[in-house]
Amino acid sequence: MPSEGRCWETLQALRSSDKGRLCYYRDWLLRREDVLEECMSLPKLSSYSGWVVEHVLSHMQENQPLSETSPSSTSASALDQPSFVPKSPDASSAFSPASPATPNGTKGKDESQHTESMVLPSSRGIKVEGCVRMYELVHRMKGTEGLRQWQEEQERKVQALSEMASEQLKRFDEWKELKQHKEFQDLREVMEKSSREALGHQEKLKAEHRHRAKILNLKLREAEQQRVKQAEQERLRKEEGQVRLRALYALQEEMLQLSQQLDASEQHKALLKVDLAAFQTRGNQLCSLISGIIRASSESSYPTAESQAEAERALQEMRDLLMNLGQEITRACEDKRRQDEEAQVKLQEAQMQQGPEAHKEPPAPSQGPGGKQNEDLQVKVQDITMQWYQQLQDASMQCVLTFEGLTNSKDSQVGERYMAHFVSQMNVAGSKLKEIFDKIHSLLSGKPVQSGGRSVSVTLNPQGLDFVQYKLAEKFVKQGEEEVASHHEAAFPIAVVASGIWELHPRVGDLILAHLHKKCPYSVPFYPTFKEGMALEDYQRMLGYQVKDSKVEQQDNFLKRMSGMIRLYAAIIQLRWPYGNRQEIHPHGLNHGWRWLAQILNMEPLSDVTATLLFDFLEVCGNALMKQYQVQFWKMLILIKEDYFPRIEAITSSGQMGSFIRLKQFLEKCLQHKDIPVPKGFLTSSFWRS
């Protein structure tokens, strides 16, 4: 149809024109734009064109048969119809396409009023807009039809794929079932084969088990025979060990006897000036060697043949040493007899000059080893010191005899508990310590003292004072042996009370020294010698060891106790009771400490013991001796370092070097800083204010 072709050409020309490319808005009235802008703007299609296409043309198509009507003819006929102009406001608002979409009544009312005054555009514009609407409708219908056909095609494909998947699933199930059946058959064959193999293996294991049972029975019989044999060997070894141990004790006893003979040759040294230092040093080393062997054997149950052989070699060396010494003494005696009378007179004069000095107690530094250094050291203590030691022991025994009948009485038990109670509480503050001191002083002075709800007095029994003095001294020394050995700082509060009691009651001080010398002979200093016929246990007790049920205490425990008592002694000689009479001298002051240090340096050192006691004594009392004796004290320290250290190191075994190294480091540090530090726990003025 020519008209329809022209319409499409017109539409295409309009679309390509400048105005056709402009954007236009159908709802410009809703935006309430200025009317003058409408006059100046490009012409636009009426808003009623859409309404005509949607209502008028569709109504016309319904009246025509579908077979005779086509989209193009319908569109053309619709466009040829006269324009529809509403006659009244009601009709206009009823057929207005904007009415149902109006959001509120006011806007619809304004639009209807404006529509009445509008003049419909020409029929050609309506046709063009109708063609546009028809074109859009045709494309929409084509799209809908294409979508429907695509959906049907997809449904057919899905159906085909579903049927194919169902068939494949059936084939897979059949294949899986066949595979399971085959695997089951294979598993059954494997199980049957394994069962046959297991039966064969079981029979084989039974045969092997029977064979192994026979072998094990043979081994058990052999093991039982071996156990019996080992038990017999162990019994023989124990018997041999006991025999060796008894032999070692016999060797040690003989060694001590030879050592005693070696000590007896000291008189030849005094008379003939024979050099006995090397013999005595080696003798002490051999005695220490056998003692170490016996100690090691006790720790490892029984001594070995090597230990016994080593002890026998040491004893043989001691015998040779004594024989050589005898030959040396014989030779010296023969030389001495060949000397003329003039030499004997000079020797007697020299002895007379040396006699008073040898027996004088060295209270001052000039008489210590710092003044005169002897190349030969002695083992025995000086005679005057030994007499002093014996006097103290005799006084202690006499005190015990006086209250012998009071030992098991009820009063003695109460008094002993009282002493133990107060002495054990001395490691307290200054005010409490003064209270304890006053009670002890009152008791010793004969005044009644309350204890445990009852009154205690030494005047109730004639031997009460002796008993209390003896037990009090014993408790003081026991505190040093136990409390000070474990807590070194406790030495000072105990020592200051002991010093104060000593000053007011001198007999208590003598008894303290007697107990201290008996439990720690090195505080004299005194090295007990083994005497013929003496039991070994008695000799060990004389050395300070505790022996219970024929068992000697361990060396570490022994050194710990000796250390505690030496520390207590070193604290006593430098402390005084602060509330006593300051004008009186100390009853046992620093001059006795100097004497002890001088005499122990003039004696041969003992392995492990001498180094331990020197360290404890210098650590506690070194600062006080330094302030008292100054230059002479530093000379003594240098003597210890240069002369005495090599002697200690020569007799000290590798397992006992701890105490020697500790002493050496302490002394070297003091010499390096030229000062000895104040001991830890030393009582200061703040202690008495507490």
TrEMBL record:
GO terms for molecular function: identical protein binding; inositol hexakisphosphate binding; phospholipid binding; translation initiation factor binding. Transmembrane segments: none annotated. Residues 65-79, 86-103 have a biased composition (Low complexity). Its main location: cytoplasm. Required for the export of mRNAs containing poly(A) tails from the nucleus into the cytoplasm. May be involved in the terminal step of the mRNA transport through the nuclear pore complex (NPC). One of its GO terms (cellular component) is nuclear pore cytoplasmic filaments. Belongs to the GLE1 family. Residues 206-268 form a coiled coil. Residues 335-344 have a biased composition (Basic and acidic residues). This is mRNA export factor GLE1. Keywords: Coiled coil, Cytoplasm, mRNA transport, Nuclear pore complex, Nucleus, Protein transport, Translocation, Transport. GO terms for biological process: poly(A)+ mRNA export from nucleus; protein transport.
